[in-house]
Design goal:
By secondary structure, this protein is an alpha/beta fold. The chain is 41% helix and 21% strand. The strands form four sheets. The protein has a five-stranded parallel sheet, sandwiched between helices. A five-stranded mixed sheet has the order 7-8-9-11-10.
């Protein structure tokens, strides 16, 4: 893959104003300006945002209808069913509402479909076989339901009301639910379409608490503590790769604080198994260590195991559940690697595949549960949208992942004539398709992808924030950078470029990483900087000199000791 570097200079007057009014460095002012914050008051709110800054929940359409129906269910002692998706977003949303409603005193249970046997979303069969038989009076969907018209109609005919809470982009007509709470519905003006499914569930919880308080409804010895439940919101939001902006950023920051506090046994044991320290846990730990373990349950077995883990109230029970999940995660990694290796071998033998703007591949033997994560790895490696389909018995079910700057959902919608069903958002989607339509879909997807890919060689642009010599990576600057966290889409980890860097030493770490000792040439300090280069070409010796070096910088904490961390992203060598 070829990378193009893009370094633009912000307005100097804007930088001076930010530096003066915020008492920050020029580097920090540059980072804020490039994130769209030229006004000092706006930037100050971004850096110091709190839960109190969240927009009110009743701005989301149908929220008032949802909480009125929920209050009636509570007053009448109805049996409430929370129905969630089988990924980390749906799991955490399910736990949040079950936990909160139980605290209020509701009769509540949950159900999550089996990824392979049941598929995505609420099904009419569940209404007939479970909800009606169990005397369910109200179903609340979380992270699903926007396209489940048939099941919602079956519930209505059975005398069961449905509240849909979701964030996936819906098509019209909207479901005939008693309330359709989805900030991405066309007629919702809340401006909170960036929320994950668990974020929408959190807003439902906040609205319900406010509504019950105003109505004088007794909620137990004390009102439910929403802040303590932000750990669930952080897990689901980061896992679902939604933009790390506005409410999401506030909720994840608060959630990370709750995770560090360690009050939820299931999360504590999950961190133990993942070797994540509560003192230093961040959004990267969630994305690459915690969320994959939660997702492994739905990929390899049943997501209810993860719900049980997070609902567990004591450490021994949680540790037993975490052990089972760890075993599933090991199976998940093996199955994922098998799919990934097969695809790399196929692409190696088929150069014409590598020259396409997209990768749409199918195989009857692939494990359906790992296709999404294998697709994500392929996107990272080849920087183009990827669709992987398990084709069996005439039916294909698959997962799609997009690239930054491309609306994957829009791409899928443009090819919808070839699909039985699809759903998702700008970064990720799922689909079902008749096997005889796969080739037509493949060509249609390729045609539309080519309209969005800039250039035939699929160059990816690195948007560099600022030119910063290595000797300017000081403790005070690293402390400033901490205030930008959590990172994610819409608030990426800053990229810097340094020129004229000498390599003093190099050693291979593991099988494919390299540790470098660097020095800024021409500097007057002679200070040495340790840097990591991940997934490096370790067969070739590194150059003695980098003409330019693109890197990330931050604090690394090991056994309570902080040290600067530099990660090399790309380089241009002296010829």
């Amino acid at each position: 893959m070829h990378w193009e570097w893009n370094l633009t200079q912000p307005d100097p007057e804007c930088l001076d104003r930010l530096c003066s009014e915020l008492a920050c460095s020029k580097v920090m002012a540059t980072l804020l300006s490039k994130r769209g914050m030229s006004d000092p008051s706006q930037a100050d709110r971004f850096l110091h945002s709190r839960l109190e800054d969240l927009r009110p929940p009743f701005g989301i359409r149908d929220m008032d209808r949802a909480v009125r129906r929920l209050r009636k269910a509570l007053q009448d002692g109805e049996h409430i069913l929370i129905y969630g998706d089988y990924d980390a977003d749906g799991i955490t949303a399910t736990v949040l509402l079950v936990d909160l409603l139980r605290e209020i005193g509701a009769r509540v249970s949950f159900a999550i479909p089996h990824r392979i046997h049941d598929g995505y979303g609420l099904k009419p069969s569940l209404i007939r076989s479970h909800a009606a038989a169990e005397g369910i009076g109200l179903i609340i969907t979380v992270d699903c339901g926007s396209s489940d018209h048939e099941a919602i109609e079956a519930a209505r005919l059975a005398g069961i009301d449905v509240i849909v809470t979701d964030h996936h982009i819906p098509s019209e007509p909207f479901p005939r639910a008693v309330a359709f709470v989805n900030p991405n519905r066309r007629d919702c003006t809340s401006g909170m379409g960036h929320l994950a499914g668990v974020g929408v569930a959190f807003y439902l919880a906040a609205a319900l608490r406010a509504h019950l308080r105003e109505a004088g409804f007794h909620m137990g010895p004390a009102e439910p503590n929403l802040k303590k439940r932000c750990d669930l919101v952080a897990l689901g939001t980061v896992a679902d790769m939604v933009p790390m902006v506005a409410e999401n950023r506030i909720l994840v920051r608060a959630g990370l604080q709750q995770i560090q506090a360690g009050h939820r046994p299931g999360v504590r044991t999950l961190m133990e198994r993942a070797s994540v320290s509560p003192d230093t846990v961040d959004e990267t730990d969630i994305a690459f260590r915690l969320a994959p373990r939660l997702n492994a349950t739905g990929r390899m077995d049943h997501a209810s195991k993860a719900v049980d883990l997070l609902l567990g109230m004591d450490l021994p029970t949680a540790r037993s559940a975490a052990d089972r999940i760890e075993s599933l995660n090991q199976r998940r990694k093996a199955a994922e690697q098998e799919v990934f290796d097969q695809i790399l071998l196929r692409l190696e033998k088929s150069p014409e595949e590598r020259n396409r703007a997209s990768l749409v591949l199918s195989n009857p033997s692939w494990h359906e549960g790992v296709l999404g994560i294998a697709a994500s790895r392929l996107v990272h490696r080849f920087h183009r949208p990827v669709v992987l389909i398990r084709s069996q018995n005439g039916v294909g079910r698959g997962s799609a992942r997009g690239i930054p700057g491309m609306d994957l959902y829009g791409l899928m919608r443009a090819c919808s004539d070839h699909l039985v069903r699809f759903g998702g958002h700008a970064a990720a989607a799922g689909l079902s398709i008749d096997c005889d339509a796969i080739e037509g879909f493949r060509e249609a997807f390729e045609r539309h992808a080519r309209e969005h890919i800039a250039g035939p060689d699929f160059r990816m642009t690195l948007d560099i924030d600022a030119a910063v010599p290595l000797n300017e990576i000081t403790p005070s600057l690293l402390d400033e950078l901490e205030r930008l966290k959590p990172y994610g889409q819409g608030n990426p980890e800053p990229l810097f470029v340094a020129s004229d860097v000498r390599v003093l030493s190099s050693e291979v770490v593991g099988e494919k990483h390299r540790r470098l000792v660097l020095v800024q040439a021409g500097g007057d300090t002679g200070r040495r900087h340790t840097a990591m280069q991940f997934n490096a070409d370790v067969e070739r010796a590194p150059p003695e000199h980098f003409r330019e070096l693109v890197f990330r910088a931050g604090w690394n904490v090991w056994r309570g000791v902080r040290s600067p961390r530099i990660v090399v992203v790309d380089a241009r060598n002296t010829s």
